[in-house]
Every structure is written in C-alpha cells, then in structure tokens.
C-alpha cells in the first residue's frame, strides 16, 4: 500500500471557506480580514468586543527531549484539538508559524502531519500572511535607523563597540553569523564587526508574541536597548524615534491568523519564536483570543518540556496572566528507543528493554511538569513499527509516575485517533486539580533563577559563569532588570548542554556563556553551551528536493 505524503493529503483536503470555519466559534465574517478564502486575520475591534467572555480551559502540548526519530508534537496538538471537537467539545488549536529557515533546512514543515494537519499547508509553511516578513522589516528598520544616526553625527553618543542589535533574516545562513559592515569608504559609514540572527530569534518577534495590543507593542518596541554609550548608558529604540514606524510595519502582523484543520476545525497560527533561542510560544494575543472563543484551547511549546514548557510557564503564563489546566507530553516509541541507546538505523527492531531505559527521559519530564502544579498526561504518537510490548513499557512508565499514557493514531485517523486521550484530558480538567505556579518568583535574583532552572529542571549540579558573566548579572540587577524572567538558550536534544547526552543525565554543569537583555520583551536571554542564534543549513538541505512540478504544484515540501 502506498502511503500518501503530508502534502498529498493536504492537497486532497476539502477546505471550507474560512468565514464558515470562523463562524463555528462565533466569529462573524465582518470580523475577518481575508487573505484569500482559506485564511484570514481576526480584527482588533472584534477581539476587544469579546474580552468579557469567560475563558476556556488551556491545554499545553509539550514533548520528551527531541531526537532524529521524531516526536510529532504539532501533529498531536492538531490531533487532540480535532479529537476534542470529535467528542462534541468546542476546541481551538493555537500554534506557532513555521520559519523558512528550518523549512528549507533540516526540520521541514511545521503544520502537523498525516490526517492531523493544518491547511493550507503550503501557504502556512511559506509566506503565509506575511507576518515574518513584517517582523524582519521592522527589525532591520531599527538597525538601519541606528546606523543612520551614527552616520549623521551620533548625537546620542552610541559607542560602536557596545552595539547590541544585529540584523535578522528568516533563513539559515551561517555565512552571516559574523560580518564586517559599512566597508567601501566614508560615504558608507563607519566599519565595524556585526552579524545576523535568524528572524525567529529577533527580540521584535518575541515582543510581537507577548504584546497585548498595538499600544503595548509600541511601548515594548520603544524599550528595546540597541546599544550603550561610552559611559554605559542604554540607548533605546524610542531614543532613535523608530518605535512608531516599526509599529506601522507591524500593525497587521499583530492580528492573529485563523486557518483550519483537515477536519475543518479552527486554528490560530500566529508568531514563531525559536524555543532553544527565544521563548518558543505562539502569540499571547492568539492564545487569549482563542480562550475567549472556545471551551478548550490546545496550544504547544517548542521542543522538549525542559525548554518549551518551562518557558511557556515562566515567561508566557507569567506575563499574560494565563494558567494551563492540563499538560500533554508527546512521546514516540522510536524516540524513547534512541534515548535508551538504540541507533537510528535499528529503530524498526523490537527492543522493549531500550524503551524502558529511554522512559527515564519521559519520567523526568513528568516530574518537571508536576513542579508547576499542572496534571500531566502522556500521548504516545503511534508508528507502524511499534509493538505491543514496547507500548506497554511506556504505559507502565507513565503509571509509575501517577499518570496515564494513551496510544494515539491521529496521523492515520485524525480526530478519531485521539478520542481516548481527549476524553481523559477533559476528565482531568473537570477534576480541577490544576494549581498552577511558576518555578521561581520575580523577586529572586537573575543568577538564582538560572541556577534554579538548571538544578530543578535540567538536574544539573550547578551553573558555571566566568567573571564577565558574573559582572553581567550584577550590572543587570543594578540597572533594575533583576525582576525579569530568564529565557534559557540551550540545546534541545539533552537536559544537559551536550546534545549527545540523551536520556536523563544528572550532575552536569551548565556553562553560562553570556546574557542578552531583551528589555522590550521583558526577559533576559541566558546563552549556554554552543547555541547559535543563526543556524546553518545541513549538508543536504530540504531545499534540494523542493520544486514545482509540470503542473505548477509544489513538491518536496513536507
């Protein structure tokens, strides 16, 4: 039997007009700003009108530590949302927008898979409604205004050795990590070392995803610190008078995007900060709007629970004033085998013992979720090679942690494939046991916040900081930023900072390489290990096989 590819399944879908999909959750046609007939933005006027609505229950989908075998977190998020609608509940999924960099690199598309997808799949994975382009343009406008200010006399006294603000591009391009700009003579400005980050690592992206409205967006943009003077005084975006123009570029991008699943259920896809560099969650505006429209909102946080879920709780929930009622941890037998020491080429062979060993990773994530006071459930994303003995090991591991694991077949069966999971999640929420709390208080020092995450979530023995980092901690505290949450930039593949250490390592040291203040987003990025804020393409990128066929249809996008 030939198995259809994700794009073939998506292309065969019978999409409904987006106005009909929106109407299912009470959004009238005149509240939509259409981008064609299958996608639209929801207007701010309508969002303001529904603020008095009761909030629906929020369900976070996270995962075990990712492996090359794959976990299917977005697929499960979509499948669970369809499953909730399948059992008669009013549910909306709220997801991040994919980045072009990973899409053409190694990760591929990010609109789910199989029969648990969001459509139009090609649009979502490519230019969509132009949000990322707007963010890139707004970010680079600020960089251009800053360099222009320096060129025309530098009345603010910017010290070019202390410029903090790089340019961005929504593509993996290692050649731009470190560059020298303004070469070519006097008319081109003053040469200096510079570099690019990927757009999803931009502070502007983080700000858009945390902003409550256009006014809050402009205020946060104005707070961005682009550089320091020679006497170390901050120079902000508003000092350069760029915040207004940036807001103009972002005014449409801030409105949430609505699309649909293959089962014609509504989905918000909006914003997309990286989870191992930034905070890895879709926009607050989309999530809160979904909560005003549906009884259940299923959202996801990037990569494993040690990164995505921790940041969702400690940054997004803290800042947005929202609290999840349940957490679903996605695992696959294949990935657990890899955590148990099995090579990728041997994953098709039954190995229940390796699954049992790999479940140490799953158990660690369940323990961590419990620290936030939210009940956890495990979703086993089924692959055809999984055996009953291997699945039983996952279920046994979950039960040993006081929870349950459900076999989910949403890739093949859509919403029907998560019916048991959906019913259990609703039951868990109805029990009302969630008592959400953040891991640390605002009043804790920045250094202690980092150490708390490292020891409590990563199970490290300690953190290590050289003298320059210790000075950064002290300077940020002295400047009044000690109350901010921290955003850990760490490899997604391990609880440690060594990507090769799978499973559940303990006792390691987390080296803190540098701190980056995001004054507009209102968090401090803590760079650990060898994290790159501008990824590179792999030896054989996905772009090699993406093309238009003779009928003008896209091939190779998955």
How is this structure best described in words?
There is one protein chain. With 558 residues, the protein is α/β, with parallel strands linked by helices. It folds into three domains: 6-129 and 253-431, Rossmann fold (3-Layer(aba) Sandwich), CATH 3.40.50.300; 133-250, Domain 2, N(10)-formyltetrahydrofolate synthetase; 446-528, Roll (Formyltetrahydrofolate synthetase, domain 3). Helices cover 35% and strands 19% of the residues. It is built from 19 helices and 25 strands. The strands form six sheets. Strands 1, 2, 3, 4, 5, 6, 14, 15, 16, 17, 18 and 19 form a twelve-stranded mixed beta sheet that branches. A hairpin with a 4-residue loop joins strand 12 and strand 13 (234-236). Helix 4 packs across helix 17 and helix 7 (131-151) packs across helix 8.
Structural descriptors:
19 helices, alpha/beta, Domain 2, N(10)-formyltetrahydrofolate synthetase, single chain, Formyltetrahydrofolate synthetase, domain 3, Rossmann fold, 558 residues, 3 domains, four-stranded mixed sheet, 25 strands, twelve-stranded mixed sheet
Short note summarizing the structure:
The protein contains 19 helices and 25 strands. By secondary structure, the chain is an alpha/beta fold.
Helicity level, as a percent range? 25-40%
Which class of secondary structure composition applies to the elements? alpha/beta
Largest sheet: 12 strands, mixed
- The portion of residues forming beta strands comes to 15-25%
How many strand segments? Answer: 25
How far apart lie the N and C ends?
Answer: 20 Å
Shape from CA axes?
globular
Q: What's the gyration radius in Å?
A: 23 Å
Mean pLDDT: 95
Instruction: Report the CATH C-level class of the largest domain.
Output: Alpha Beta
- Poorly predicted segments: none
Number of helices: 19
Proper CATH architecture of the largest domain = 3-Layer(aba) Sandwich
Number of spatially distinct domains: 3
CATH fold naming of the largest domain: Rossmann fold
């Amino acid at each position: 039997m030939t198995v259809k590819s994700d794009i073939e399944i998506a292309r065969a879908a019978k999409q409904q007009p987006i106005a009909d999909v929106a109407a299912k959750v009470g959004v009238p046609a005149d509240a939509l700003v259409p981008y064609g007939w299958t996608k639209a933005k929801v207007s701010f006027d309508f969002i303001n009108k529904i603020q008095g609505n009761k909030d629906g229950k929020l369900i976070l989908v996270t995962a075990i530590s990712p492996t090359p075998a794959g976990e299917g977190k977005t697929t499960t998020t979509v499948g669970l949302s369809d499953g909730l609608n399948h059992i008669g509940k009013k549910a909306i999924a709220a997801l991040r927008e994919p980045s072009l960099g990973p899409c053409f690199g190694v990760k591929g598309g990010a609109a789910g898979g199989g029969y648990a997808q969001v459509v139009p799949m090609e649009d979502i994975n490519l230019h969509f409604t132009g949000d990322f382009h707007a963010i890139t343009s707004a970010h680079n406008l600020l960089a251009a205004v800053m360099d222009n200010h320096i060129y025309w006399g530098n009345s603010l006294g910017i010290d070019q050795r202390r410029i903090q603000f790089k340019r961005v591009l929504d593509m993996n391009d290692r050649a731009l990590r470190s560059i020298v700009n303004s070469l070519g003579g006097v008319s081109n400005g003053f040469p200096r070392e510079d570099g690019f980050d990927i757009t999803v690592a931009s502070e502007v992206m983080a700000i858009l995803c945390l902003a409550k409205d256009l006014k809050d967006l402009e205020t946060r943009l104005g707070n961005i610190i682009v550089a320091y003077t020679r006497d170390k005084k901050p120079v902000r975006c508003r000092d350069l008078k760029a915040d207004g123009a940036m807001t103009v570029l972002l005014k449409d991008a801030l409105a949430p995007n609505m699309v649909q699943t293959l089962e014609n259920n509504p989905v918000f896809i909006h914003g997309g900060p990286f989870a191992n560099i930034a905070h890895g969650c879709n926009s607050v505006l989309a999530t809160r709007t979904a909560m005003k429209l549906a009884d259940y909102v299923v959202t996801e946080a990037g990569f494993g629970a040690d990164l995505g879920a921790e940041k969702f709780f400690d940054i997004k929930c803290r800042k947005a004033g929202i609290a999840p009622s349940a957490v679903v941890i996605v695992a696959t037998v294949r990935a657990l085998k890899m955590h148990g020491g099995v090579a990728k080429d041997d994953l098709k062979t039954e190995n229940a013992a390796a699954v049992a060993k790999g479940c140490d990773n799953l158990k660690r994530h369940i323990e961590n979720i419990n620290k936030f006071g939210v009940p956890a459930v495990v979703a086993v994303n089924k692959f055809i090679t999984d055996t009953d003995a291997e699945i039983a090991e996952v279920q046994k591991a979950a039960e040993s942690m006081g929870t349950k694991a459900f076999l989910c077949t949403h890739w093949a069966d859509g919403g029907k494939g998560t019916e048991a999971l959906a019913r259990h999640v609703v039951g868990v929420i109805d029990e009302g046991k969630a008592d959400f709390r953040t891991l640390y208080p605002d009043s804790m020092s920045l250094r202690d916040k980092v150490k708390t995450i490292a020891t409590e979530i990563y199970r490290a023995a300690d953190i290590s900081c050289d003298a320059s980092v210790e000075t950064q901690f002290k300077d940020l505290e002295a400047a009044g930023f000690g109350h901010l949450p921290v955003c850990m930039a760490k490899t997604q593949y391990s609880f440690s900072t060594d990507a090769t250490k799978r499973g559940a390592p303990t006792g390691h040291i987390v080296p803190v390489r540098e701190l980056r203040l995001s004054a507009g987003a209102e968090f401090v990025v803590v760079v650990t290990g060898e994290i790159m804020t501008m990824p590179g393409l792999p030896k054989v990128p996905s772009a090699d096989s993406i093309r238009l066929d003779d009928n003008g249809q896209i091939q190779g996008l998955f």
